[in-house]
Amino acid sequence: MQKEGPKALKRYLRFAKEGRLPPESAAPLEESESPFEAAVWEALRSKGLEVDRQVGASRYRIDLAIKDPEQPGRY
């Protein structure tokens, strides 16, 4: 069984090379973690942007990530 450290490193290296997270680690959470984050998410969405919440591959996630409209799968 592989430890989490090497798995995280492998995902990071893939991200660094390809510019996108592997599908198994890219699933964002559906809820904001704070009222401020929810308000910013709503404001960005009201401007027509596609925004994911809590994006990442570990317990340290990016609060909000704007999807690249020109390149699916990228932020």
Could you explain how this protein is built, in words?
The chain has 75 residues and is of the alpha+beta class. It has one domain (4-66). Helix content is 36%, strand content 13%. It contains two helices and two strands, in the order ααββ. It has helices at residues 4-18, 35-46, and strands at residues 51-55, 62-66. Strands 1-2 form a two-stranded antiparallel sheet. β1 (51-55) and β2 form a beta hairpin. The termini are far apart. The mean pLDDT is 81.
Topology, please?
Layout: H1 4-18, H2 35-46, E1 51-55, E2 62-66
Briefly say what this structure is.
Helices cover 36% and strands 13% of the residues. The protein has 75 residues and is α+β, with helices and mostly antiparallel strands.
How does the overall form come out from the CA principal axes?
Answer: flat
What is the makeup of the main sheet?
2 strands, antiparallel
Low-confidence stretches: none
The averaged pLDDT comes out at 81
Q: In the residues, how many domains can be counted?
A: 1
The neighbouring-strand order within the major sheet is 1-2
Number of helix segments?
A: 2
How does the helix and strand content classify structurally? alpha+beta
| Gyration radius, in Å | 14 Å
The secondary-structure element order is HHEE
Separation of the first and last Cα atoms: 31 Å
Per DSSP, what share of the residues sits in E-state strands of 2 or more residues?
5-15%
Helix fraction, binned, reads: 25-40%
Number of strands: 2
Identify the notable features of this structure and list them briefly.
2 strands; alpha+beta
